[in-house]
């Protein structure tokens, strides 16, 4: 199962995540929040909510609500914890 086998969508407007680094942390770092389960890889800030990057929507939703097809969230959480403890 590759990373393209699951879908990530905005729960409000159904915008499809395009795999780009659309999220900017308060520390100024820009990254793809779905590769780290909402944790900034630079300052390790954990984002419980994720903002839709589209101009028309721009709404905040629970990070977990973005995953349409169940994926290995445990694995992502472990990765996220690893980043925090690193
Ligand atoms: Zn949206
Ligand atoms: Zn940060």
């Amino acid at each position: 199962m590759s990373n393209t086998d699951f879908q990530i969508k905005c729960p409000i407007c159904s915008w499809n995540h395009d795999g780009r680094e659309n999220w900017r942390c308060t520390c100024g770092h820009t990254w793809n929040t779905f590769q780290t389960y909402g944790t900034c890889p630079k300052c390790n800030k954990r984002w419980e909510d994720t903002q839709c990057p589209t101009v028309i929507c721009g709404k905040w939703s629970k990070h977990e609500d973005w995953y349409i097809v169940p994926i290995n969230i445990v694995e992502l959480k472990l990765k996220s914890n690893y980043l925090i403890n690193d």
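The chain has a mean pLDDT of 85. The helical segments are 73-85.
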